[in-house]
Amino acid sequence: MSGMEDKITSLLAEGKVYPPPEQGRDQAWVKSMDEYKEAYAHSMNDPEGYWAQRAEELVTWDKKWDRVLECDLSIPEVKWFVGGKLNLSVNCLDRHLINDRRNKAAIIWQGEPEDDVRVYTYQMLHDEVCRFANVLKKKGVKRGDRVAIYLPMVPEMAIALLACTRLGAVHSVVFAGFSAAALQSRIEDCHAKVLITADGVLRGGKAIPLKASADEALLSCPSVECCVVVRRAAIDVEMKEGRDCWWHREMSAKDISSFCEPESMDAEDMLFILYTSGSTGKPKGVVHTTGGYLTYALHTAKWVFDLKDNDIHWCTADLGWITGHSYILYGPLGLGATTLMFEGVPSYPSPDRFWKIVEKFKVSIFYTAPTAIRALMREGVEHTRKWDLSSLRLLGSVGEPINPEAWMWYYLHIGKEKLPIVDTWWQTETGGIMIAPLPYVTPLKPGAATLPLPGVDAAIFTEEGKEASPNEGGHLVIRKPWPGMLRGVFGSPERYKKAYFDRYPNIYDPEDGARRDEDGYFWMMGRLDDVINVSGHRLGTAEIESALVAHEAVAEAAAVGMPHPVKGQAVFAFVTLMSWAEESDELLAELRQHVRKEIGPIATPDVILWAPSLPKTRSGKIMRRILRKIAASDFADFGDTSTLADPSVVDELVDTRKKLG
Ligand code: 6R9
């Protein structure tokens, strides 16, 4: 064991509580635990009064709301700031032009090549956003139309999102790591009118085609009338006459002005759709609306990141995920801060890339995922020592539970035992952070997301719907509506109700397991549904299974999560072949490639185990509990197997698993 590991292990064994830093507290937005407690009590006793205050303080409204909240969770139907009118791009751009921020950096973009840097001031960003909004208008995009966005992390992505909000069009970003098939099904589900993509993606020093996947998807997307293509990777692409056009050509057209009148939107008008995995096969189009989402993104960015005017805020997520939406784009820009956007990966060209960027731009707030921390941890601490990290004042974590070892490493080597770590629990569906420490106020326990933010009525419920006792594991639930909550699943009110409000009547169910300790701190324990969390990305087991079964040689498949030292979880698939098919390494490679193509590289199974059959109950349900244990090589106790139709199946799988090592 190395010295560092030694230190981490012994510190953890102490079960120590880490007090919040005193330095910086005087300038913090929230300065004391009492302030937190008071706000929390206010938000619980008078939610409407509390949120009205926040919305008034944080958001610029064209017209104030008539009613703060209309809510019936039994339908469910939730409306915040009813009758209020606003425009999101005005809140992120125009309102900063009339104060001192006009010439301040809004976005600092670091491309994958070191010398590729672009800085947009608020004025420049405003002008670009207006121009692109005018381009979209020219293409016939109107308020309410859906625009699909399939782009790498280039500034055009931020511009495209904001341009949609200028017109009141609904954006739906699809992560550029997803396949053509995944893009196609999302576009089809939301009937997007326009697709914005790029020729390719720069990744790990290589140029990877993207437009080719877009073309493949568009073969069966009749709703898409126009495809705008950003030139990024100098890859030759086919441009379809009458449908495809280049971003740079459109933007430089003579009739494209740098002013575009913003649409005044209703608070409850749809702002964006973002697809996420759930327990059933098809991804859910999570719907967020304008007034509530913005209020919540700004409120949480201010409280949790203590965001100030002189901060350089770096959230390392991709804009294709909710974390990017709320904490690269809308939160920081709405508050008039400087946000850093990074196109590359932590490991290229070397594992010190993150720290080099921190020094280069004097990053003050750094928000990343446990999977990245674990990967960097493996590369050794010397990489962190090459660069000056003294500009940092606050660290954050998101995406999955952070294991205490990774927390300690982050605390010791990046935070130098001085900086607060905000471990933020939330979801695509919640719009913004729900449970997290306040950086200068909350005492920290490594591995705990700590306490709910004001307005968040979080609790742990038993199966029977009673509140669990301290330290008893159960279902995390949220009992009151909050402004950032999802307003629906696009096109499917039934799924909205079934997925989130079915287990406990009138209560939001995030499908996460957790416990609350004697101090009221929340400790997250992972998903309770059939979702696998690979590197902080949610993957539905059903999606992976249907991709596998779509292959002609596969009769049946079951995918489960398996513990993985860096990714948190990896995909482990049990595959039963058709009787005519033969097990082979070629077929194995083909199946992995097949899943990659159907969903994307992040869904590729790490392990595929040939299963002559799967353990099933007499009613035909696959016993995933058993498969999860087999995947983890945990053969000690399979619990009650009496309902299995054929218990011998389990022994056979255990033998094969042991051979795999
Ligand atoms: C923001 C985001 C949501 C799921 C969520 C939970 C897990 C996220 C976490 C965390 C423990 C944290 N999760 N943050 N678990 N501690 N700090 O990641 O959204 O992609 O929708 O994933 O991620 O299981 O339910 P999303």
TrEMBL record:
Which Gene3D superfamilies does UniProt cross-reference here?
A: 3.30.300.30, N-terminal domain of ligase-like
Q: Which residues bind ATP?
A: G399, E400, P401, D423, T424, W425, W426, Q427, T428, D512, R527, R538
Q: Where is the AMP-binding enzyme C-terminal domain?
A: 543-621
Transferase in keyword set? no
| Entry EC number(s) | 6.2.1.1
The family database entries (InterPro entries) matched by this protein are listed as: Ac_CoA_lig, ACAS_N, AMP-bd_C, AMP-bd_C_sf, AMP-binding_CS, AMP-dep_synth/lig_dom, ANL_N_sf
- What protein family does this chain belong to? Belongs to the ATP-dependent AMP-binding enzyme family.
Specify the protein name: Acetyl-coenzyme A synthetase
Q: Could you tell me which species this protein originates from?
A: Desulfobulbus oligotrophicus
Q: Which gene encodes it?
A: acs
